[in-house]
Structures are given as C-alpha cells and as structure tokens.
C-alpha cells in the first residue's frame, strides 16, 4: 500500500456529485474512485465502514460491486472497487439511461423486470441497507444478449451511528422494503415522459 498509482484522464469513466471513477491502470476488472469535492469524505467513509461491516458478515455481493480497499493515487486517496463490465467488455452504464429512453425500456423490458426483482431479493437476502436508492447509482450489466444483472455502486449503508437496522433482521427488512418502494415511485416520477414505466413497476410489484 506504499506505492502511488498514477491515474490519467484516459482512465476516466464518469463522475457523480462527490467522486470521480477511473479504470484501474493495472487491472482491467477494477476501478478506482477518488473524492473530488468537500463533503465527499464523510459520505465515502460511511460507505467504506459499511462495506467492511458487510465483508465481516460474509455476504455474497450479488447486488453490489466488490470493495478491494484503499489506494493512494496522484489525484489523492482513492478506493478500489470491482469494475462492472458487460460481456462484450464495455463498462456497464447506469439504469437511469434505460429509464430515460422509451425504446431502451421497451427493448429490455423483461430483463429490467427480472433484474429489479432479483436486486430486491438480493438486498433482502443479505440484509443490505442503503440510503436513497437512485437509478443513477445502479448499473445495468449485460451478461449475455439475453441475461443481465443490476448492481448498486453507490450510497449503501446507514446514516445513523450504530444503526439498529444493521443488527436486527426485522428492522433491516422493513427499512429495505421502505427504501425500495420509494425507489420504485421515483422511477415513475423522474421519467414522466416514459409511459412504459408505470407498467414496468406494476409488473415488478406483482
Ligand atoms: N463499480 C463501477 N463499475 C463501473 N462504473 C462505475 C462503478 N462505480 C462507479 N462507476 C461510474 O462512475 C460514476 C460515479 O460513481 P459514483 O456514483 O460512485 O460517484 P458519486 O459521486 O458517489 O455519485 P453520487 O452523485 O450519486 O453521490 C457512476 O455513475 C458510474 O457511471
Ligand atoms: Mg453516484
């Protein structure tokens, strides 16, 4: 952990409000996230603490990108995660793109339904608590032409210190159910120009 990894703009994938994400220059299956603004550190630390909690509990990481630990880079301290790639080698893109585009929703309708159902089951099975679930923080990974998987890449964990939901399965389950329903509602609200989504959500809920 003493070596510094040199990142450059050719490694850049994308950014959110807090972090920039880069391809790991020495490992094509990993990415490195570096904070780039104030306020990012608190969120990142909370998330990393929760990742460590999940690793200790030995969860399966079906629903999440794996975490590999901290790293020092020329852009500052970063954290290494599993890079989510499609079967053709492309970096997977966020679910929000599939909801914002009617023809993509239509093309992948069945896979989206299955993916959402499986994601919810995986969260419940491993009792993974999230902050607000947003479609920009879920990647749609194509595993083959007909198979795919949804993976949460951001905003996991709990805001309260020593949260009861982390330890008591009943509270975890009800928190996951509430956060999940809010997420489904937000999909329809944020994409009011895409009428297919009302049907999609009702199929998912069925
Ligand atoms: N594991 C990953 N594999 C592939 N791409 C990723 C991965 N993690 C992040 N990305 C890309 O980098 C972008 C930014 O990452 P991330 O969402 O973690 O940043 P953030 O600043 O925490 O976001 P937010 O604004 O939601 O707080 C994502 O939208 C996604 O496109
Ligand atoms: Mg994000």
UniProtKB/TrEMBL annotation:
InterPro entries, alphabetized: Kinase-like_dom_sf, PhoP_reg_network_YrbL
SUPFAM superfamilies associated with the record: Protein kinase-like (PK-like)
Superkingdom field: Bacteria
Pfam families: YrbL-PhoP_reg
Protein name as annotated: PhoP regulatory network protein YrbL
């Amino acid at each position: 952990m003493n070596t510094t990894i040199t990142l450059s703009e050719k490694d850049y994938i994308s950014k959110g409000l807090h972090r920039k994400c880069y391809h790991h220059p020495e490992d094509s299956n990993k990415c490195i996230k570096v904070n780039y603004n104030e306020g990012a550190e608190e969120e990142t630390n909370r998330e990393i603490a929760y990742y460590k909690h999940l690793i200790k509990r030995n969860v399966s990481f079906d629903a999440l990108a794996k975490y590999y630990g901290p790293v020092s880079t020329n852009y500052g301290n970063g954290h290494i995660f599993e890079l989510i790639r499609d079967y053709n080698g492309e970096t997977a893109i966020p679910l929000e793109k599939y909801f914002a585009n009617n023809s993509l929703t239509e093309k992948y309708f069945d896979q989206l339904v299955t993916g959402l159902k499986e994601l919810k089951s995986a969260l419940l099975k491993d009792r993974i608590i999230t902050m607000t679930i947003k479609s920009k923080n879920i990647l749609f990974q194509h595993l083959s032409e007909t198979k795919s998987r949804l993976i949460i890449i951001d905003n996991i964990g709990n805001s309260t210190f020593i949260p009861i939901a982390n330890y008591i399965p009943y509270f975890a389950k009800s928190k996951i159910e509430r956060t999940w329903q809010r997420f489904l509602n937000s999909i329809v609200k944020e994409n009011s120009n895409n009428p297919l989504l009302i049907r999609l959500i009702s199929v998912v809920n069925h």
